[in-house]
Design brief:
Glutaredoxin; single chain; four-stranded mixed sheet
Length: about 110
């Protein structure tokens, strides 16, 4: 059975990171981290969210003025996660538990 979901009803989760070249060798890449975050969230919130990974200075970065503004104000440092435009995680490392709690509040 296929369920059609209206994108307007989806919760938007966006992971913002530094460009890949800045991630040290021998460590997980930001693409790996993004895939891990998405997979973890899908276990609990499948079909309820849209996930996106955007690197700083990417074309998609410049299209998101809200993310630029909160970074420029110093509200966050990279990496950070916005859920429907609100800061869900802005630690030195991506905190999946915080993102899940934030999603839980949004989904209820």
């Amino acid at each position: 059975m296929v369920y059609l979901v209206n994108m307007e009803d989806m919760i938007n989760v966006i992971l913002y990171t530094v460009p890949q070249a800045a991630c040290g060798s021998g460590q997980m890449s930001w693409q790996d981290v993004a895939a891990m975050v998405k997979n973890q969230l899908e276990r609990h919130y499948a079909g309820k969210f849209h996930f996106e990974h955007i690197e700083f200075m990417d074309d998609r970065w410049f299209a998101n003025t809200h993310a630029q503004e909160i970074l420029e104000r110093g509200d966050v440092n990279l990496p950070f996660v916005l859920v429907d435009g609100e800061i869900a995680s802005a630690d030195k490392k991506v905190n999946i538990s915080k993102i899940k709690k934030f999603l839980q509040q949004k989904a209820s």
